Amino acid sequence: MKILSNAFKYTPNGGIIKLDLYIHETDVCVSVSDNGVGISDEDKKLVFNRFFQTSHNLRNTGSGIGLHIVSEYIKLHNGSIDITDNKPNGCIFTLRFPLIETTAVSVNPVTDYVEEYQDTQHEEIFPQKPVLLFVDDNQDLCNFIRDNLMNDYSLLIANDGQEALVLLKKNDVNIVVSDIMMPVMDGIELCKQIKTNIEWSHIPVILLTAKTADEHKIEGLEIGADDYITKPFNLEILKLRILKFFEWSLKSHKTFKQKLDVNPNEITITSLDEKLIEKAINIVEKNISETEFSVELLGEALGLSRGHLYRKLMAITGKSPSEFIRLVRLKRGKQLLEKSQLQITEIAYQVGFTSRNHFTMKFKEEFGISPSEYVRTLKTDEIE
Predict the structure, then answer these.
(1) Is residue 352 a contact partner of residue 288, using CB atoms and an 8 Å limit?
(2) pTM, whole model, 2 decimals?
(3) Torsion angle of alpha carbons 298, 303, 307, 310, nearest 10°?
(4) pLDDT digits (tens, 9 = 90+) for 320-361
(5) Would 273 disulfide with which of 134, 176, 268, 328, CB 3.0-4.6 Å?
(6) Which domains does the chain have, with CATH numbers?
(7) What distance in Å separates the CA atoms of residue 36 and residue 222, rounded to the nearest whole number?
(8) CA 117, CA 242: separation in Å to the nearest integer?
């Protein structure tokens, strides 16, 4: 508890710290008292404000965010907190929570849905734990996130935007959750750096913002933030928002695989990625009859290294570069089976396969039916 740790922090050696739990009328009360340096009447009015620091002349003065988070979490539970003097020295923090009657079995629909969703979808989207980068300058909140998300994600923690960029360069990150107000580099600038970099622009960014910071929301949306969550936030809601992005990613992969003609804006979240996928499809189609057209040539045409090309295409389409090229060839082959009078062997060569057998094998792997069987179904449909 932040209040208890502060009591130890500002109480000298040999001092007294007391923790009391009691019921007063219709409230459950928790009080923490100490005989330390105390808090002035002027500071009592401001101590719960974000980034406020007391006038104590101490080296270990904190960031001024801890008590703000405490007060916001207490409000979430319909509680209150106040400070009084503990005469002759020190102060008393009193937390009050209303007594609420509950049934024997408590059901949390959000938690239940998150757990069910994780069981059915999480492993389908990522064979290994997805990598989540959490960025916040408050160490208490970072520790809380680490304790609660480490079982579901490979968690990376940064305390400002600059640290986050270093981690992004070294890791294949799947999603970023970042506070807005941070030193060195804030969340708005971090989001801008991500969304304007072709290597990272596919990564969803969720920004954490204060209730009154509407100007931050507008600014963030303008530079490509994908979602906002207001602080203080419900952890289960955050989990659900993250999972929704992974669900959308899975649906995008299926759309790219199943639809014959895919509009790039159906499977991307930024205009930068939309242009990239559109260009990649056009490049493959332009070279579709070239059997020697390779991943290296595609990467060179797009200005991406093999590693960056792999990460981009896997994130957006669910296909590796070689699978991406092959799928574009197969889709064009499928179109030709539907609309042309060409033989299967001719179509195979036209879309860059070295033989009819190879085309047939890959066609059946992708679409679950051989080219000749597909042609027969088309003719049957025409007759009916």
Answers:
(1) yes
(2) 0.66
(3) -50
(4) 999 999 999 999 999 999 988 899 999 999 999 999 999 999
(5) 268
(6) 2-98 (3.30.565.10), 109-252 (3.40.50.2300), 259-383 (1.10.10.60)
(7) 48
(8) 11
